[in-house]
């Protein structure tokens, strides 16, 4: 038996089978504090015109901050990482897949560090990393893999500077980023 319930607050799903047992999953929606304030005030919540977004809600000078490119297909993870890393003092640019990331990298100034998810649509992290390694201008950018998957020899063969398992603590993530900038 499978059932699910969705609302503005998130999603609850449950699976149950006679021989397989039961499993319940929840996914709560998260909104950045600035978006919550807009909702409470009854104002419109701004939409993103492009999947590649630069954040600066902390008001820090973007030109002097270390730039992190977050590549992850999960909107919630990208938004949470962007907000937390911005509050930790970084400039953050995001992309929903490897193709978007490569377009950004070839058009805009390069980031100091790349945070790369592996399992994504269109161009996954493995394909992105292969393209990155082929391009001499992109090869030197430190890349940190952030994955919920199993760390296999295939993942290790990607040659990333670090491999972090999701969920990763903010402290560990920031410490790892700072080792490479």
Helices and strands, with pairings:
Elements: E1 2-7, E2 10-17, E3 21-28, H1 33-40, E4 54-55, E5 67-71, H2 75-87, E6 91-95, H3 98-107, E7 113-116, H4 125-134, H5 136-139, E8 143-147, H6 153-156, E9 162-165, H7 170-179
Parallel strand pairs: 5-6, 5-7, 7-8, 8-9
Antiparallel strand pairs: 1-2, 2-3, 4-6
Helix pairs in contact: 3-4
How helix-rich are the residues, as a percent range?
Answer: 25-40%
Biggest sheet record: 6 strands, mixed
Identify the CATH architecture: 3-Layer(aba) Sandwich
CATH H level: which superfamily? Response regulator
Instruction: From the 3D structure, determine the CATH topology.
Output: Rossmann fold
Strand order of the largest sheet: 4-6-5-7-8-9
